[in-house]
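PT: before anyone asks, these are the final sequences, not the draft ones from last week. 506 residues across everything. Please model them as a single complex and drop the result in this thread when it's through.
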Amino acid sequence: MTDAEIRKAFLDELASVAPDIDPATVGDDDHLQDDLDLDSMDFLNLVAALHKRLGVSVPEADYPQIATPGHAVRYLADALD
Amino acid sequence: MPSLGADMEEGKLVEWLVKPGDEVAHGDVVAVVETQKGAIEIEIFEAGTVEKLLAEPGETLPVGAPLAHVRAPGEEAAEETEEAEISKQAAPPETPAGKPAPARSAPEKPVAKPAAPPPPRTGESPPPASPAARALAAKEGVGLDDITGSGPGGAILLSDVEACLAAPRGAQSAEDTPGARPEAGGKPAGIAGGGTPATGKPGLDMGAMRQAIAAAMSRSKREIPHYYLERTIDLQPATDWLAVQNEGRDPDARLLMGVLFLRATALAAAKVPEFNGHYEDGAFRPSEAVHAGLAVALRGGGLIAPAIRDAQALGLDAMMAAIRDVVARTRTGRLRNSEITQGTITVSSMGEGGADALYAVIYPPQVAIVGFGTPVRRAWVVDDALQPRTTVTVTLSADHRVSDGRRGARLLSEIERLLKEPETL
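LR: through. Structure below.
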């Protein structure tokens, strides 16, 4: 998977977890919880959706590494390698 | 039209989910009603056959107006005097059988249409009007005599005052307020085309939501003598236990700390009964079951506290599933009326990145609300030695008409005891 494909998958799942967020307006450095207002339930739902779609199960200890879309794409790309 | 909160005056029927001839059973969802809290699914509390639908989708009806006639099993068809009315059956089930809850401004007999012309008023006495309608009319300097009421007995409702204010000035209404967010919770499924934009949209209107919160919280602060307690507790045992639990789980089976908070509060409330129930008509009625309200914040503003029913009986995994379900439905605007009205105690949790403590306002007719601040690493004394520990400050806001601080402290220490032994939750 290319980084662009991973980014699209991530933003798709973000938008389905939080339908009021427009993926087109989300920047790579936006913090999911501080900037995009995801709460812990939204965040867990996103992690579960990524697990289902990409087969990557992000452990709790690694949550800080997917705190922004930019970081998450890097983390997921490494995990998929 | 059931009352979905003490401050609700009317609701708009959005959709029927049954038709004449359908059999209905206790707990079936029969209709969708739009309120200030979004679209709410209406459950029926009586079994029988739907005889006749009295309201049309799109119609706005005052609380207490009948929505449909339901024939009880074995009953003869079209026997006017024996008709069950959904609006009355939908009252909280704690009400003794056969004695409908006194819904505010509920008519004694079925009213044909809320839009029926008001009966002629005689004498000089002011026309009947709801408190909200009075307040708005006074604020805007409109005389009540100049307004035509559409409520029971010609009573003037808030919407009548708004209509009167809007009429001379054109199509200006509260919904057009800049910043109001029409569909903050996303588009609810199955409510397509339910009305014109000017009279109300499916989903959540932020201006209306703010009004609903203002009404409930003002009433709470006016009527309930609050007292407040707080206790900071060592959350390290629960944090460690949760990390171990979640390590071996797939993401969709993981638990959140908020689930432990709700579970501990539900168990504690079952043990200290002065905090679990409703205060109505000058008396506290404790509840055996703990229907734990969970304050759910909506992105973009607003708050709804739907109840997780029988929370004292749910294990952690079942409670996690219940919370996931109710949070999702809160945000898409498909809660049921029992979830809106039957909470017996509420839990409000800051989550991560919030404040250390929150002093919450009780949601009437409940008598207590427990607040969990954001867990914080603090220097903490354990066995006479200083250690860095994850801690959380728990607060209790409670009703002094029902309990005193000493019992409140008992509730908090019970929550502490449970969270220190998470394996017992």
